[in-house]
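Case study 2.
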Amino acid sequence: MSENWGPLLVAAARRDLETRARLVESGELFGGYHPEMEKVHDENAALLARVFDDIGWPGRREFGDDGAGAAFLILQHAIGHPDLQRRGLALILDAIPEGQANPLDAAYLADRIAIFEGAEQTFGTQFDWDANGQLSPAPVRDPESLDERRASVGLPPIAETIANMRANAAAENETAPPDLAERRAAYDAWARKAGWRA
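Prediction:
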């Protein structure tokens, strides 16, 4: 390794989680993409891009679960960087057969990319508020075989995850937006501005 990337990735991921926890505690996180959170995500994305350029995917054999897990968290949160997320997914998929990456991580990231692109997700890992004010899976392809696909990557049945997601939202005092149509329009505008959609 030309740099000691492991500790840098772990520290960056810790900063992400600590910033998020503080913004949740203050009640500031859920009113759109908070500028402080976005800044952390952007700085961490720049770090991960340098890692990719240097060594490719930071695999579990060399970086352990902590380092590889930190890289995945940073990648999953690099939502303003479509090219980085797509590149990271390709690297993860290449690393899975050697045991250097986790199929579950690939499932989460593939779903996130699909939703940002305005497509249906495959594994039901991405959630949003529905018309009834409930946190529910964003659109999923072939919903009748969803639990089968989820089981193939180690995810529990979707009903269990829905219950957990709603309980977590309640614990963090996250509530449905007052105007869902307005929130969706703002989200679509952000997705176009970030380069996810034409």
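The first helix runs from residue 5 to 26.
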